[in-house]
Amino acid sequence: MNPERPAAPPPTLPPHPSLRAYYPDEQARRGFVRRIFDETAEDYDTIEKIMALGSGSWYRRRALVRSGLAAGMRVLDVACGTGLVTREELAVVGEGGMVVGLDPSVGMLLQARRSLPVKAVMGLGEELPFPDACVDFVSLGYALRHLADLTVAFREFARVLRPGGILCVLELTPPRQWLARGLLRLYVRGLMPAIARVAGRHPQTSLLWRYFWDTMDTCVPPETVLAALREAGFENVSRFVEIKLFSEYTGRRP
To answer: How far apart are CA 225 and CA 200, in angstroms?
Structure first.
Protein backbone atom coordinates (compact mmCIF):
# COMPACT_ATOMS: atom_id res chain seq x y z
CA MET A 1 0.00 0.00 0.00
CA ASN A 2 1.96 3.00 -1.28
CA PRO A 3 1.02 6.52 -0.15
CA GLU A 4 -0.25 8.99 -2.73
CA ARG A 5 -0.67 12.74 -2.59
CA PRO A 6 -3.54 13.58 -0.19
CA ALA A 7 -6.82 14.88 -1.50
CA ALA A 8 -7.71 18.56 -1.23
CA PRO A 9 -8.42 19.72 2.35
CA PRO A 10 -12.06 19.54 3.44
CA PRO A 11 -14.08 22.74 3.79
CA THR A 12 -13.79 24.66 7.05
CA LEU A 13 -16.89 24.22 9.19
CA PRO A 14 -17.68 26.02 12.45
CA PRO A 15 -17.64 23.92 15.62
CA HIS A 16 -20.85 23.07 17.45
CA PRO A 17 -21.69 25.86 19.95
CA SER A 18 -21.18 23.43 22.84
CA LEU A 19 -17.58 22.82 21.74
CA ARG A 20 -16.46 26.44 21.39
CA ALA A 21 -15.04 26.33 24.90
CA TYR A 22 -12.39 24.01 23.48
CA TYR A 23 -11.66 25.75 20.15
CA PRO A 24 -13.08 28.60 18.03
CA ASP A 25 -12.80 27.09 14.52
CA GLU A 26 -11.82 24.04 12.49
CA GLN A 27 -8.12 24.85 12.33
CA ALA A 28 -7.96 25.23 16.11
CA ARG A 29 -10.00 22.02 16.51
CA ARG A 30 -7.42 19.98 14.63
CA GLY A 31 -4.62 21.35 16.78
CA PHE A 32 -6.55 20.76 20.00
CA VAL A 33 -7.43 17.17 19.09
CA ARG A 34 -3.85 16.32 18.15
CA ARG A 35 -2.45 17.82 21.35
CA ILE A 36 -4.88 16.26 23.77
CA PHE A 37 -4.55 12.78 22.25
CA ASP A 38 -0.76 13.11 22.07
CA GLU A 39 -0.58 14.08 25.74
CA THR A 40 -2.97 11.40 27.02
CA ALA A 41 -2.03 8.43 24.80
CA GLU A 42 -0.33 6.52 27.63
CA ASP A 43 -3.48 6.70 29.76
CA TYR A 44 -6.06 6.00 27.06
CA ASP A 45 -6.28 2.19 27.18
CA THR A 46 -6.40 2.10 30.98
CA ILE A 47 -9.27 4.58 31.27
CA GLU A 48 -11.17 3.07 28.34
CA LYS A 49 -11.00 -0.37 29.93
CA ILE A 50 -12.41 1.02 33.16
CA MET A 51 -15.19 2.86 31.32
CA ALA A 52 -16.20 -0.21 29.29
CA LEU A 53 -15.93 -2.48 32.35
CA GLY A 54 -13.55 -4.70 30.42
CA SER A 55 -16.08 -5.58 27.70
CA GLY A 56 -14.68 -3.40 24.92
CA SER A 57 -12.48 -6.01 23.24
CA TRP A 58 -15.26 -8.59 23.08
CA TYR A 59 -17.74 -6.11 21.65
CA ARG A 60 -15.37 -4.60 19.06
CA ARG A 61 -14.51 -8.01 17.57
CA ARG A 62 -18.16 -9.03 17.53
CA ALA A 63 -19.14 -5.80 15.73
CA LEU A 64 -16.37 -6.09 13.13
CA VAL A 65 -17.26 -9.67 12.25
CA ARG A 66 -20.95 -8.78 12.12
CA SER A 67 -20.07 -6.03 9.63
CA GLY A 68 -18.29 -8.48 7.31
CA LEU A 69 -14.64 -8.55 8.39
CA ALA A 70 -13.10 -11.91 7.53
CA ALA A 71 -9.80 -13.76 7.36
CA GLY A 72 -7.36 -12.64 4.68
CA MET A 73 -8.74 -9.13 4.21
CA ARG A 74 -6.65 -5.99 3.68
CA VAL A 75 -7.85 -3.44 6.24
CA LEU A 76 -7.44 0.28 6.87
CA ASP A 77 -8.32 1.37 10.42
CA VAL A 78 -8.94 5.13 10.30
CA ALA A 79 -8.42 7.07 13.54
CA CYS A 80 -6.89 3.92 15.01
CA GLY A 81 -5.70 5.64 18.20
CA THR A 82 -3.86 3.23 20.46
CA GLY A 83 -5.07 0.29 18.38
CA LEU A 84 -8.12 -0.93 20.26
CA VAL A 85 -10.04 -1.70 17.06
CA THR A 86 -6.86 -2.56 15.15
CA ARG A 87 -6.01 -5.32 17.64
CA GLU A 88 -9.31 -7.09 17.00
CA GLU A 89 -8.92 -6.71 13.24
CA LEU A 90 -5.49 -8.33 13.34
CA ALA A 91 -6.97 -11.27 15.21
CA VAL A 92 -9.77 -11.70 12.67
CA VAL A 93 -7.82 -11.29 9.38
CA GLY A 94 -4.98 -13.54 10.54
CA GLU A 95 -1.60 -14.03 8.92
CA GLY A 96 -3.07 -13.93 5.42
CA GLY A 97 -4.49 -10.46 5.92
CA MET A 98 -3.05 -7.02 6.57
CA VAL A 99 -4.05 -4.07 8.78
CA VAL A 100 -2.80 -0.49 8.48
CA GLY A 101 -3.65 2.05 11.18
CA LEU A 102 -4.03 5.77 10.44
CA ASP A 103 -4.34 8.56 13.00
CA PRO A 104 -3.50 12.31 13.23
CA SER A 105 -1.92 11.85 16.68
CA VAL A 106 1.71 10.73 16.76
CA GLY A 107 1.33 9.90 20.45
CA MET A 108 -1.51 7.50 19.75
CA LEU A 109 0.35 5.88 16.84
CA LEU A 110 3.46 5.34 18.94
CA GLN A 111 1.34 3.74 21.64
CA ALA A 112 -0.27 1.43 19.07
CA ARG A 113 3.10 0.42 17.66
CA ARG A 114 4.39 -0.52 21.12
CA SER A 115 1.93 -3.38 21.41
CA LEU A 116 0.86 -4.26 17.85
CA PRO A 117 2.70 -5.52 14.74
CA VAL A 118 0.93 -3.01 12.51
CA LYS A 119 2.00 -0.37 10.03
CA ALA A 120 1.06 3.05 11.40
CA VAL A 121 0.55 6.11 9.18
CA MET A 122 -0.05 9.67 10.33
CA GLY A 123 -2.97 11.31 8.53
CA LEU A 124 -6.57 12.49 8.50
CA GLY A 125 -9.70 10.60 7.58
CA GLU A 126 -10.70 13.35 5.17
CA GLU A 127 -7.35 13.20 3.35
CA LEU A 128 -6.30 9.55 3.13
CA PRO A 129 -2.71 9.19 1.82
CA PHE A 130 -3.45 5.92 -0.01
CA PRO A 131 -4.16 4.92 -3.62
CA ASP A 132 -7.57 4.02 -5.00
CA ALA A 133 -9.08 0.57 -4.41
CA CYS A 134 -6.27 -0.69 -2.17
CA VAL A 135 -8.19 -2.30 0.73
CA ASP A 136 -11.12 -4.64 1.34
CA PHE A 137 -12.36 -3.15 4.59
CA VAL A 138 -12.24 0.32 6.16
CA SER A 139 -13.09 0.89 9.82
CA LEU A 140 -13.63 4.04 11.85
CA GLY A 141 -13.88 3.35 15.56
CA TYR A 142 -15.47 5.97 17.81
CA ALA A 143 -14.09 8.93 15.86
CA LEU A 144 -17.09 9.89 13.75
CA ARG A 145 -17.56 12.99 15.93
CA HIS A 146 -14.02 14.14 15.17
CA LEU A 147 -14.58 14.37 11.40
CA ALA A 148 -14.90 17.87 9.94
CA ASP A 149 -17.11 16.79 7.04
CA LEU A 150 -18.82 13.40 6.87
CA THR A 151 -19.39 13.32 3.12
CA VAL A 152 -15.78 14.27 2.33
CA ALA A 153 -14.49 11.57 4.67
CA PHE A 154 -16.93 8.91 3.45
CA ARG A 155 -15.98 9.61 -0.17
CA GLU A 156 -12.35 9.11 0.78
CA PHE A 157 -13.25 5.82 2.46
CA ALA A 158 -15.09 4.73 -0.69
CA ARG A 159 -12.15 5.76 -2.87
CA VAL A 160 -9.64 3.49 -1.12
CA LEU A 161 -12.03 0.54 -0.97
CA ARG A 162 -11.97 -1.98 -3.78
CA PRO A 163 -15.32 -2.62 -5.56
CA GLY A 164 -17.45 -4.60 -3.14
CA GLY A 165 -15.35 -3.46 -0.16
CA ILE A 166 -16.96 -2.80 3.21
CA LEU A 167 -17.02 0.24 5.48
CA CYS A 168 -17.73 -0.18 9.20
CA VAL A 169 -18.21 2.86 11.42
CA LEU A 170 -18.52 2.27 15.16
CA GLU A 171 -19.85 5.06 17.36
CA LEU A 172 -21.52 5.70 20.69
CA THR A 173 -24.99 7.21 20.28
CA PRO A 174 -26.47 8.68 23.48
CA PRO A 175 -30.11 7.72 24.06
CA ARG A 176 -32.69 10.39 23.30
CA GLN A 177 -34.72 9.70 26.42
CA TRP A 178 -33.72 12.45 28.87
CA LEU A 179 -33.26 10.30 31.99
CA ALA A 180 -31.07 7.67 30.28
CA ARG A 181 -29.08 10.42 28.57
CA GLY A 182 -28.61 12.26 31.86
CA LEU A 183 -27.37 9.13 33.62
CA LEU A 184 -24.92 8.43 30.80
CA ARG A 185 -23.68 12.02 30.96
CA LEU A 186 -23.14 11.69 34.69
CA TYR A 187 -21.12 8.52 34.13
CA VAL A 188 -18.99 9.66 31.17
CA ARG A 189 -18.56 13.37 31.91
CA GLY A 190 -18.77 13.24 35.70
CA LEU A 191 -17.42 9.94 37.01
CA MET A 192 -14.87 9.08 34.30
CA PRO A 193 -12.91 12.38 34.55
CA ALA A 194 -12.77 11.86 38.33
CA ILE A 195 -11.41 8.35 37.81
CA ALA A 196 -8.95 9.68 35.23
CA ARG A 197 -7.55 12.12 37.78
CA VAL A 198 -6.74 9.18 40.06
CA ALA A 199 -5.84 6.42 37.58
CA GLY A 200 -4.24 8.57 34.89
CA ARG A 201 -0.67 9.83 34.79
CA HIS A 202 -1.27 12.98 32.76
CA PRO A 203 -3.28 16.03 33.88
CA GLN A 204 -5.02 16.37 30.49
CA THR A 205 -6.56 12.89 30.73
CA SER A 206 -9.42 14.19 32.84
CA LEU A 207 -10.11 16.91 30.24
CA LEU A 208 -10.06 14.32 27.46
CA TRP A 209 -12.93 12.38 29.03
CA ARG A 210 -15.01 15.51 29.53
CA TYR A 211 -14.38 16.28 25.87
CA PHE A 212 -15.29 12.67 25.05
CA TRP A 213 -18.82 13.23 26.31
CA ASP A 214 -19.20 16.70 24.79
CA THR A 215 -18.31 15.41 21.31
CA MET A 216 -20.53 12.36 21.75
CA ASP A 217 -23.41 14.57 22.92
CA THR A 218 -23.09 16.84 19.87
CA CYS A 219 -22.39 14.16 17.27
CA VAL A 220 -24.61 14.25 14.19
CA PRO A 221 -27.74 12.08 14.48
CA PRO A 222 -27.90 8.60 12.93
CA GLU A 223 -30.18 9.78 10.12
CA THR A 224 -27.52 12.26 8.99
CA VAL A 225 -24.80 9.61 9.07
CA LEU A 226 -26.87 7.22 6.95
CA ALA A 227 -27.69 9.97 4.46
CA ALA A 228 -24.02 10.97 4.19
CA LEU A 229 -23.03 7.36 3.51
CA ARG A 230 -25.54 7.13 0.68
CA GLU A 231 -24.46 10.51 -0.70
CA ALA A 232 -20.86 9.28 -0.75
CA GLY A 233 -21.94 6.40 -2.99
CA PHE A 234 -22.22 3.50 -0.55
CA GLU A 235 -24.82 0.79 -1.10
CA ASN A 236 -26.56 -1.54 1.36
CA VAL A 237 -26.23 1.17 4.00
CA SER A 238 -27.53 0.12 7.41
CA ARG A 239 -27.29 0.78 11.13
CA PHE A 240 -27.26 -1.87 13.84
CA VAL A 241 -27.64 -0.82 17.48
CA GLU A 242 -26.31 -2.81 20.44
CA ILE A 243 -27.95 -2.22 23.85
CA LYS A 244 -29.41 1.09 22.61
CA LEU A 245 -25.98 2.77 22.77
CA PHE A 246 -23.46 1.31 20.31
CA SER A 247 -24.14 2.19 16.68
CA GLU A 248 -22.63 0.14 13.87
CA TYR A 249 -22.96 1.81 10.47
CA THR A 250 -22.07 -0.29 7.45
CA GLY A 251 -21.99 0.23 3.71
CA ARG A 252 -20.54 -1.43 0.64
CA ARG A 253 -18.72 0.21 -2.26
CA PRO A 254 -20.49 -0.64 -5.55
So the answer is: 33
pLDDT, tens digit, 9 for 90 and up, residues 143-202: 999 998 999 999 999 999 999 999 999 999 999 999 999 999 999 999 999 999 999 999
pLDDT tens string 94-135: 999 999 999 999 999 999 999 899 999 999 999 999 999 999
Closest CA to 105 of 168, 13, 18, 42: 42
- 195: helix, coil or strand? helix
CA 231 to chain centre: 20
Per-residue DSSP letters for 61-119? HHHHHHHT--TT-EEEEET-TTTHHHHHHHHHH-TTSEEEEEES-HHHHHHHHHH---E
